[in-house]
């Protein structure tokens, strides 16, 4: 019953919102407020990605443990990514190499928060997949991603998509549609 009521209310809100977007008939003092509200509507549609990132953030500092997807022990890169997505019911691969065939490929310029970045291993000249992470934020065109690294941080951390990672970048895929 509650679910049905929620769906009804949400449907009514969307119907109202689509008709009310032309707010020129409103008094001037309300036009700005309505525009502000409608500009926030896309934020609601990205709530799945927001929840996913919030959950991933709760794992910050967990140690890097090779071949592990156990939050009590720690994670390797693909163990972390698969654990995060599996928590939300997404069926994703367990190994970084298999992520190349998962989800929907996206151009890096079109990638969004919650998409998976796929990299080579630590040597960028060896063009074989060996690392994955989840886009954490995109601000002013600058991407940060959350991942479990065996490098300096040696665990779950947020890293800038810097020149080193750009040299290792292979592709991006969208799991959350």
From TrEMBL:
The keyword Signal applies. GO terms for biological process: proteolysis. Residues 1-20 form the signal peptide. GO terms for molecular function: cysteine-type peptidase activity. Keywords: Hydrolase, Protease, Signal, Thiol protease. InterPro entries: NLP_P60_dom, Papain-like_cys_pep_sf, Peptidase_C40. The keyword Signal applies. Belongs to the peptidase C40 family. This is CHAP domain-containing protein. It comes from Pedobacter planticolens.
